[in-house]
Amino acid sequence: MSAHGGRRWFVPTASVGLALILAVVPLPEAVAAFRPDWVAVVLLYWCLIEPRRYGLLSAFWIGLALDTLTGTLLGQHSLALLVIVYLSQRFYLRIRTFPASQVVLIVIVLLALYEFILFWIDGVAGREVRLIERWGPVVTGGLLWLLVLVAIERGRREAEARM
Amino acid sequence: MSGASKAAGIPGRGGVSLGARFVLLAVVALILMFVDHRQDHLQRVRALLSLAVYPIQVAVDLPFSTWDSLSAALADRSAIMSENEQLRSELRFARLTLQDYEALKRENERLRGLVSAVEDQSELDYRMAEIVAVDLENRQRLLINRGANDGVKIGQPLIDAEGIVGQVMAVYPFSSEALLITDTSHRIQVVNTRTGERTIAQGTGDSGTLRLLYVTNDDDIAVGDELETTGLGGVFPRGRLVARVTSVERQPGQSFASVLAAPVADLDRDQEVLLVWSRPPAGEGEAIPLELSP
User: Fold this and answer.
1) Residues of chain B below pLDDT 50
2) Using CB atoms and an 8 Å cut-off, which of residues 93-132 of chain A contact chain B?
3) Three-class SS of residue A129?
4) Fewer CB atoms inside 10 A, N or C side of chain B?
């Protein structure tokens, strides 16, 4: 592994760590309902950028970390992340050929599915569930992904200009 | 992360397909959830995982605790002087009350000796714990910076200067998770200090409201009544304020009245809480373990 390899390992890990921090940073109750699913967004990003390095196993462990941090059932976030990462990898080749606008739509659908799984497990486990609070994160997560795509596009154009 | 997950994401590697690996991991997650929901066997697993995520919790809390200490350090002199003055007068007042209290305690002991009653109130120990500024999924729970290393036990009560805050639900090596009295799954037996009638206060999920259960329409209860702990069940110390009644709605045709109360503890704004240990009365050897009653 060269210095380049070291960087490849550092950036994803740091971004996931940051996402975990943002997932539990205290927010006022009114704003907290719109807290994006930082971890899901960041994980989806890495699974689509480098599907050979980040996948189901990453989703499982990161989900467990999130469960421990937020005090939910162990495995709840793991399962939800596993499902969306599985779908993103299953249709990885197709998603890559889509234009940016459609990728955003797919990510929004995946985030909605993620929230629904969390909501559903809460319901089955007999925990308190509030459906309203579940849709804010999907919207803000989609917007976040839009920003990510703009950044990727810009990076790609710069790389092409350099060549 | 990199070592373990390198193999993941390569479809079909080693003959195991993406779908098979997904099913395997999903089943593991489902089993974890099932076991975690049904039993407490995963306490150790949770404790281990909590060690792994502890740095993240510290990182989240750091700006808040730094801000607190900074604002304390930078507070201007006159403000500190006036606060000092105020604290002095409060301390003087508290000392006076304490003297009254000591006198009452001696008299109480003397009277107890006269009737040779069994001492039912064990001595209490307190220790300060800071609330870690971390948002948990359930907002009626909180994380404190004391854990198994400090001798924290499940079921231990949490109080603040005003009254009862909650009780410890899960203990990790350096932190513990506590349930506030306002959580919907929390019930606490209380007694009305004015009438001596007992009832149960259940959380509503709103940090400013408790609901009193089983108060009949004929019961004597009024807005402003103070509710304190009964000490029955062995979890909470006796005679601590819990809440004040804020609304009484008698419903004709229903067997129970709808009574709401506001917790006296400052659940929203507390930064520190006190953990309570009960010490056996002098003369007895072993500590009596606290009874668990969730």
Assistant:
1) 1-12, 281-294
2) 121, 125, 127-128
3) coil
4) C
**A38-47, A101-110, B121-130: segment of lowest average pLDDT:** B121-130
> Which pLDDT score, from 0 to 100, does residue B62 have?
87
Task: Read off the tokens for B84.
Answer: 């000092």
B72 contact A CB<8A: no
Residue of A nearest to B133 (CA): A26
Rounded to the nearest 10 degrees, the angle between the axes of helix A56-70 and helix A3-24 is 40
**CB-based contact, B20 to chain A, within 8 Å:** no
Q: How is chain B split into domains, by residue range?
A: 125-280
Q: What is the rounded distance in angstroms from the CA atom of residue A142 to the CA atom of residue B116?
A: 72
Q: CB-based contact (8 Å) between B280 and chain A?
A: no
For residue range B160-178, what is the model confidence (pLDDT) as tens digits?
888 899 999 888 888 899 9
C-alpha closest to that of A108 among A138, A147, A148: A138
Question: In total, how many domains does chain A have?
Answer: 1
DSSP secondary structure, B100-127, as one string: HHHHHHHHHHHHHHHTTPPP---EEEEE
Q: Is the pTM here over 0.80, yes or no?
A: no
CB A142 within 8 A of CB A108: yes
Residue A122 lies in domain: 3-162
Residue A85 has pLDDT above 90, yes or no: yes
Chain B CB contacts of A6 below 8 Å = none
Contact criterion met (CB < 8 Å) for B9 and A53: yes
CATH number at residue A82: 1.10.1760
Nearest CA in chain A to B38: A125
pLDDT computed for residue B247 by the predictor: 92
| CA gyration radius, chain B | 24
Look at residue A132 in the predicted model and tell me its pLDDT. 67
Q: Which fold has domain B125-280?
A: Thrombin, subunit H (2.40.10)
**What pLDDT is recorded for position B282?**
44
* Cβ pair A60:B25 closer than 8 A: yes
Across the range A74-97, mean pLDDT stands at 90
A16 inside 8 A of chain B by CB: yes
